[in-house]
Write a structure and sequence with these properties.
By secondary structure, the chain is α+β, with helices and mostly antiparallel strands. The chain has a three-stranded antiparallel β-sheet with strand order 1-3-2. A two-stranded antiparallel sheet has the order 4-5. It is elongated.
Length: about 230
Amino acid sequence: MYNDDIILDIIGNNTRRKILAVLAREPMYFNQLAKEIAVGQQAILRHMKTLEDIGLIESYAEKSNLGAPDRKYYRLRSSLSLTICLSEDAFSIQNRKIEQYRHKESDAFYKEYDSLTQSDNGETLIRLQSSLTKIEKEISSLDSRLNDLRALRQLTVHRLHRIAKDNFEEEFERKILHTIMDETPQSVSELANILKEKPLRIRNTLNRMNKKLYGNKYGQKTLFTEIQDK
């Protein structure tokens, strides 16, 4: 999977985004692409090399039916989904490869696609358009639910941050709490490894945090003793 910084740098350029959008419709040879993008050939060459070097596009040769030399075409090579979430209490970037898992929730869509014949006639075009409409509607519904869950996550994280601010004056204590929530370490040694701190300091700080947060109930199973016991 591509590094987040590399992907953001690539799509941060308007010309590269145009190249990717055009090639998403169909492969093109260089002169076609330059005309479509309306950018100078030297500039486009530099962007094409960058996209090809990173592996987002690739070139291939196709024979001309007019007896001319083989023509070099470009096409997209990668399939990935990039999600950026930014809110008052959170920032995250996720990029994942687009792959077929054929989850049971998507089974009806796959069965409809599998039922298509190999002939690319008018009936197939109509059925593909119908399927695409249904798929887009399903994606929109899922996106709406995801957005709702992200809103709920934002409320939850905001409440956690408020607890951290109200109960722990030391920056290191808040850092430990945030790391526990974000990384879900399973032990003191794992937490120490994430924070690059000595386990003894982590353990002593967790003991203080337990006393501050749980008071007289300290000694029972708490969020922090569960990590210490593992």
